[in-house]
Amino acid sequence: MHPQPDPATLGEIVTRSQAIAAGMTVGQVNRRLRSGAWVSLRAGVYLLPHRGEQPADRFEAERRRHRQHAVAAVLRHPHGTIAGRSAALVHGMPLTSGVPSMVEIVVPHGHWTGRRAGVAVRSVVLEPSDHAWIPMGQALRGLPENQVDDAGADVARLHVPAMTPARTWVDIACRDEQAQALSAGDRALRTGQMGVAEVESILARMAGSRGCRRAAAVLPHLDGRRENALESLSFGRFLEWRLPLPVLQHEFSDAAGFIGRVDFYWPAFALVGEADGRLKYTSPEVLYAEKRRQERLEGLGLRVVRWGWSDVVTSNPRLWAQLRGCLLAAA
Q1: Cα 194-200-201 angle, rounded to 5 deg
Q2: Could you give the CA distance from residue 147 to residue 306 in angstroms, rounded to a whole number?
Q3: Cα 214 to the chain's mean position, in Å?
Q4: What does pTM read for this prediction?
Q5: DSSP 157
């Protein structure tokens, strides 16, 4: 009689060799695949859907699917490290460009590079300090290290290699657009995943490498006070449009007391900017409270301009013209 497999040793993603080491036979593995209890992600790497949490929405489902394929890919590449935008998703950093279509992995020089089966493999020199070994449960959920809780046996037993948050940010900032670098970097600073000095050290070591100048130019603009990706993306557009840069998270009060904190404030122009995400106001009560808040701000002689994702995800000339017009009028 074959030994019964020990489920406590199997994570949400498991290789065939791990399943067999846990006491399963090839036949037992194949039966689970045929029944749909397990799903093949790559040759010899399987997803155990019942072990994972259900994503909160379709956007998180898409991000989680990418993280699953990134973990599966690196398990099939013994010299590989999750990198770039895939590493950003593993670390919980937002991507303004959306979920990438290809998993990104880097390998040392001398190994195969190219694109195959949804994985882009490139050659990069990484220092030991550039590597992070992340518990699988954390990697699949995209949790910053300081937000990890008990995600099951796989957290204690199985880790996957990825670039550290700081090295991930440098990889993105060297290769992607400024707004994406701001979004990922602001989040990493806000959650304490990386520090400016750590990034400066990496850039100094990589001086002369392609894209380093661009990353170094973005770094001074990172600010953990921006509370979400929409605010980071908006600030990126201000830089792109060469607008005067606003004060962040300024608080206002009037005779009745505290009004609130605004996303952006141009004091020399008496202008407030609010980046309103979709579904921010979920009830008539909240909507009315926000209306009253704006009326009180306007009572202070301020002009309030609002925008959403569709206004900044591409460089929208309407918003640029509106903000520029307000700034010129006030000047």
Answers
A1: 95
A2: 32
A3: 20
A4: 0.87
A5: H
CB neighbours of residue 211 within 10 Å: 15
Strand locations in 83-207 (E):
103-107, 114-116, 119-123, 131-135, 159-163
Compute how many other C-beta atoms are within 10 angstroms of the C-beta atom of residue 303: 15
Contact 159, 153 (CB under 8 A): no
d(CA 328, CA 312): 21
Q: What is the pLDDT of residues 272-323, one digit of tens each?
A: 999 986 545 567 877 888 889 999 999 999 999 999 988 998 877 889 999 9
Q: Do 196 and 173 meet the contact criterion of CB atoms below 8 Å apart? A: no
Instruction: Return the closest-CA partner of residue 83 out of 96, 74, 95, 94.
Output: 74
Q: 175: how many CB neighbours lie within 10 A of its CB?
A: 18
Residues 6 or more apart in contact with residue 111 via CB below 8 angstroms: 79, 121, 123
Both tokens assigned to 21 = 């080491």
Dihedral sign computed on CA atoms, order 65, 31, 74, 110: negative
The bridge status of strand 131-135 relative to strand 39-42 is unpaired
Tens digits of residue pLDDT in 38-91 = 999 999 899 988 766 666 678 888 999 999 999 999 998 889 999 999 999 999
**133 pairs with which residues across the strands?**
161
Q: What is the DSSP letter of 237?
A: H
Could you give the 3-state DSSP secondary structure of residue 307? strand
Residue whose structure tokens are 């195959």: 116
Closest CA to 261 of 273, 249, 269: 249
pLDDT per residue as tens digits for the range 99-137: 999 999 999 999 999 999 999 999 999 999 999 999 888
